[in-house]
Write a structure and sequence with these properties.
- This protein is an alpha/beta fold.
- It folds into two domains: 14-218, P-loop containing nucleotide triphosphate hydrolases (Rossmann fold), CATH 3.40.50.300; 224-290.
- The protein has twelve helices and seven strands.
- The strands form two sheets. The chain has a five-stranded parallel beta sheet with strand order 2-3-4-1-5, sandwiched between helices. A two-stranded antiparallel sheet has the order 6-7.
- The protein is elongated and about 70 Å long.
Length: 324
């Protein structure tokens, strides 16, 4: 999910955001909803989710919001996004050891009431001693059912206590265990204050079948007007060279991430310079090297960090993978 700090002010997506907030209100009233947000890579799926969360917070809504991320290298890791959600739900920190994790799970689930029987399965999912040797000794299929039942019970109980939003990002990389869990969860969501938000790229089709409470929001590329408006907000002025508009429309193609990257790259390399409250072209914009893919964007940003910055990022990635 995109970090809130440093985000470009939102442009467009008003209709989609309004729909998302309306569906939350339906869920809050006890009519559970599922919303699929789909579109090409970098089109703004995660940003719409973030804007939904910010809007609910600004409105003073009391809600439990839990996010799980599917990863390109995580399809062989069962329940990967679910583990993200569980760690957030119980306030588990990276530095927590097994005793702290067990204490947080036990305390929270006992206070919630009615789900104490599922504590061993939740502990098992969090890779600590489940406190039940029988669970560890089960056949994989039987144990998987107990894990699904536990997550289902925890989710439904949590939603009964306070409206719940469960976010699953990038379902095109989902593992089979989480996919099966979502199918089970959907069978029970209709009558509880629970909103499921799923994001995925065009080309992935969720295997859940049609549901009356399922809404799909397909994000399109930004219009020319929205592209220019976004660039204006990044630069802090509505007055910039016509040549920049031409390059933006040609290179960014209405993709939110690329609009931002085109402008920032041109600033970083000095192709655009601020002058008297506006901007002037210092070199040919069309010839400037602007990243063409997400991978190119990542590499360009790493290059701008320098060697020390690159090393810091590498170490953080290694620490994250070891923590998994």
């Amino acid at each position: 999910m995109a970090a809130e700090r440093g985000l470009t002010p939102r442009v467009g997506r008003d209709r989609e955001l309004t729909t998302l907030l309306d569906l939350f209100q339906q869920a809050k009233a006890g009519h559970g909803q599922m919303v699929s947000i789909t579109g090409e890579a970098c089109i703004g799926k995660s940003r719409l989710v973030l804007e939904g969360r910010r809007a609910l917070a600004a409105a003073g809504e009391t809600v439990t919001w839990l996010e799980g991320q599917c990863l390109s290298f995580g399809q062989a890791i069962p329940f990967l996004p679910v583990i993200d959600q569980l760690r957030a739900n119980f306030g588990i920190e990276e530095a927590d050891g097994e005793p702290e994790i067990i204490a947080k799970v036990e305390d929270s689930m006992r206070r919630m009431g009615a789900i104490e029987a599922h504590i061993p399965a939740i502990r098992y999912l969090l890779a600590v001693d489940p406190g039940d040797a029988a669970l560890s000794a089960m056949e994989p299929a039987a144990r998987r059912k107990q894990l699904v039942d536990a997550v289902l019970a925890l989710s439904l109980r949590g939603a009964q206590l306070r409206p719940l939003v469960l976010v699953y990002e990038d379902l095109h990389w989902i593992d089979t265990s989480t996919e099966a869990l979502l199918g089970t969860l959907l069978d029970a969501v209709a009558g509880v204050p629970l909103l499921l938000l799923l994001t995925y790229r065009v080309g992935y089709t969720p295997p859940f079948g049609s549901r009356s409470f399922h809404t799909t929001l397909t994000l399109q590329s930004l219009s020319e007007a929205d592209t220019v408006a976004m660039a204006s907000r990044i630069l802090g002025t509505e007055h910039f060279p016509e040549a920049l508009k031409t390059v933006l429309l040609a290179k960014a193609e209405g993709v939110l991430l690329f609009v931002e990257e085109v402008v920032k790259t041109l600033l970083d390399i000095g192709a655009l310079q601020r002058e008297n409250g506006s901007y002037r072209v210092v070199q040919g914009l069309a010839e400037a090297h602007v990243p063409d893919t997400v991978q190119d964007i990542i590499m360009a940003r790493l290059d701008r960090l320098g060697e020390a910055g690159k090393r810091t990022v590498q170490l953080k990635v290694l620490d994250w993978r070891e923590a998994r």
